[in-house]
Amino acid sequence: MRMNPVKLFREVISKEMPVDAQSYENARGYFASRTIAYESPIGRMGIVAADQESISHVFFFHDFPFGESSSIQMQYPVLMYAQELLDQYFAGEPLEFSEVPIRFNCGTDFQNQVWKTIRQIPYGEVRSYKWIAERVGRPKAVRAVGNAVGANAAVILNPCHRVVRSDGALGGYGGGLERKRRLLALEGHPIEKVK
Q1: What is the arithmetic mean of pLDDT over 156-173?
Q2: What is the pLDDT of residue 97?
Q3: pTM for the complete prediction?
């Protein structure tokens, strides 16, 4: 079963959030201090710092779960770095996001293997779910790979939009297929070759 990255992020938060009201507000403030909203040309995104040097989540959203960004987020320079790279990316600069450290701390060992393999797909290219299954040593686990790709917690920075079906069809995308098409087109991938 595919898991929406926003839902996955909310589940991570809910495990950390205590029950009583004051503790809840303290925990909410903790997460809000390490999360920024980013306005991209294809929709609003949330970027979450795992720590000062790594990202844990990037997701599309309609309602930002934490209110407005504040100056406290400056304690996490990786947020500004990720934002600057996304600005360059959406301006059409061919970027690899492998320089942005992502801490995969919410998935299974298998999901983490899949997510690390996705990071190896070069800008402007696509790979199949089958290719990933072979790379992680589970060539028959194509459906499980699809589920892991769908649960990717750091969209764009971990470029799951570059994963397509073996027959050339787009497959799925947590942010919606139109966003996937637009990201591939932005990267110069011949979108007419993708069904």
Answers
A1: 91
A2: 87
A3: 0.81
DSSP characters over 26-44: HHHHHHHTTEEEEEETTEE
What pLDDT does 65 receive?
61
Instruction: Indicate if 74 and 128 belong to the same structural domain.
Output: no
**What is the three-class DSSP state of 62?**
coil
End-to-end CA distance of the chain: 23
The first and second tokens of residue 52, run together, are 């000062």
Range of the domain at 16: 5-99
CATH code: domain of residue 114: 1.10.10.10
Average pLDDT over residues 110-124: 94
CB 165 within 8 A of CB 128: yes
Q: In this structure, what token pair is assigned to residue 125?
A: 């290219």
Domain total for the chain? 2
Active site (catalytic) residues: 160
- What is the average per-residue pLDDT within 158-165? 94
Check residue 164 and give its pLDDT. 94
Question: Which of 94, 88, 96, 110 has the alpha carbon at shortest distance from 158?
Answer: 96
